[in-house]
Amino acid sequence: MAQIRIEHLRKDFGSFTAVKSSSFTIEDGEFFMLLGPSGCGKTTTLRMMAGLELPTSGHIFIDDEEVSQKPASQRDIAFVFQMFALYPHMNVRKNISYPLYNQGMPRAQIKEKIAEVAKILRIEDILDRPVGGLSGGDRQRVALGRAIVRDPKAFFMDEPLGALDAEFREHMAEELRALHDRMEATTVYVTHDQLEAMQMGDKIVVMNHGVVEQFGVPQDIYDWPATKFVADFIGSPPMNFLDFEGTVANGATSVQLSGVDFQIPEMLTGLQGDLSLGVRPEHVKLTDTSAYRGEVLAAEYLGTTQIVTLRTDHGIIKARLSSSTNVREGETVGVDLDARKLTVFDAQTGHALMSSANKEVLTHG
Amino acid sequence: MSFSVTHPSLRQKWIAGTLVILYALLTILPLLWIIATGFKSPSDAIAYPPKVVFDPTLEGYVNLFTTRTRMTPEALEEAGPPQTWYDQIVRQYDMVISGPSRYGERFLNSVIIGFGSTFLSVFLGTLAAYGFSRFKVPLKDDLMFFILSTRMMPPIAVAIPIFLMFRQLGLSDTHLGMILLYTAVNLSLSVWLLKGFIDEIPVEYEEAALIDGYTRFQAFYKVVLPQAATGIASTAIFCLIFSWNEYAFAVLLTSGTAQTAPPFIPTIIGVGKDWPAVAAGTTLFLVPVMVFTILLRKHLLRGITFGAVRK
């Protein structure tokens, strides 16, 4: 198992730049998520790490060994493809053992290995079946089997749950995570599903337009997004933005919206111009005492919580409230924001301004 | 339960069945005619109206494989009674067998040149198609168009230049020359057909093999080739049918050593209007292509629809 370090990785396809300059480190044994919308460069980044694409520039280190120009066959990593890519002309057993034949492993040992892997994945009874007739879940397990049978330095997975039925995905996600915890293998996992990333990952890299937007643990990324893109991409419903023109000074502890003061974490930078106050729906509260007013447009009931849509002077925002809160469409209510969980963004660049609360997260990423 | 599929009525089945049988008769009738003529005597073969019922004889086949000389009655007397059944057949015409004909050689030439060029076209075509399908080839589209453009005129249009080139290179009337020529003509077909087939094979299979520690070439022949078998088989059939039946180049460029069966068969007619021998030669000539096609039929049926459908 291995640590993987990416430095200033870049990939051009003709005049199109798929990955601009990615840098991050995946620690040994981590379950690492590459998250972003389609076309953001996450799959290209993974393919470069695997050796299926060669980078235009930049470095990839697996256990401090530079591999960026090495072919895939020499990197000792395993790859699980989205469509599984099981060899259609071989049965399950041959598919799983195929990487081992190449290593010249003795037959008896191969047999032992397959038995072990089949037991872990609970596919003992389908070993001699052709892969053509298998269900999605079984194909997924065989693909995993082919990956883990080799004890590679790292597992790379490209949206491995993407081809499965929705109800089965959850189950497989748990199985994958359990498998990872058992093997403690460095795993890099590409997904466009932010829930999947939050649920499974130890760490997440969020990419957009070939650029790493933020890199860190799920909680930090959720609470303290580094850019408006991350704030918007993660969370459902996403973070609310109250756009305003004004000034925040270095050391400020409040911002003024429509003449109402909102407390914010102490700012460590200052900026004048187009700003945006970011707040997660669960940090929006309704209080009669607040002078900041909003009109209730709709309420969606979600069981224990409800999502209330409000029209304010600074745009439409959504609040996640307890279902027991009584709101009526059309009524005007006072809106308050949780002072500890607010982020001020530069509306021009989309970057978060540094405050005492997100300082650690921003300097880390 | 409801089905959206409508079952054909009895009347529709009858109409469809009749049409299929009519079409089958239409295509198979010339073949049956040739096969039947091969077993007729020369007089039955040219009888008018044509004889459907006749006394079958192997005369045509005997004449196909032998050369014969007419003898005077005295000489025949001297030669003694006929020794074998085929001797007996030729004696009816006051002739004796003077030696084997060249049909066997010509047939063998057809086999060597036909299968040789088919193998070469498919081999080179597979490699080229794989390259075009998987790698960034500069001017790929233009090259593919250029390859196809060699089929845009009848091959025989370049017969004179090829004739002159072959004479200069010493390839006239050689097996190698004919193999190279038929390969060149077939290659455009095989590259285009096979590229279609290989494009259909997801690249992930090879990538999986690369990740599993195999080299690019190993990935090609262990993972891509088995899946391209269907395409390769159907391409091979098309290539063989062309080079097996090719007539014009064969007439022009071969005369002795490398002459194939198609230009030879018409010469059998000779002076005696020996239609049964011609028919016998044609019948036998059909056999290898039919056997080859039947052997690969399973692939051919799948192959025709496989490459044709774009996802």
The CATH architecture name of the largest domain in chain A reads 3-Layer(aba) Sandwich
How far the N terminus sits from the C terminus of chain B, by CA atoms, comes to 31 Å
Number of strands of chain B: 2
Distance between the termini of chain A: 24 Å
CATH architecture of the largest domain in chain B: Orthogonal Bundle
Rg of chain A, Å, rounded: 24 Å
- Helix proportion range of chain A: 10-25%
Number of strands of chain A: 20
Give a description of the structure:
The complex is a heterodimer of chains A (365) and B (311). Chain A is of the alpha+beta class. Chain A is built from nine helices and 20 strands. Chain A has a six-stranded mixed β-sheet, with helices on both faces. In chain A, strands 15-19-16-17-18 form a five-stranded antiparallel β-sheet, with no helix packed on it. A four-stranded antiparallel β-sheet of chain A has the order 2-1-4-5, with helices on one face. Chain B has 15 helices and two strands. Chain B folds into two domains: 60 residues, no CATH class; 179 residues, MetI-like (MetI-like fold, Orthogonal Bundle), CATH 1.10.3720. The C terminus of chain B is likely disordered. By secondary structure, chain B is mainly alpha-helical. Chains A and B meet through strand 6 and helix 2 of A and helix 10 and helix 11 of B.
In short:
With 365 residues, chain A is an alpha+beta fold. Chain A has helices at 42-50, 92-102, 107-121, 136-148, 166-183, 194-200, 218-223, 228-233, 359-364, and strands spanning 4-13, 16-26, 31-35, 57-62, 65-66, 77-80, 154-158, 186-191, 203-208, 211-216, 240-248, 254-257, 260-263, 271-279, 284-286, 293-301, 305-312, 315-322, 332-337, 343-346. By secondary structure, chain B is mainly alpha-helical.
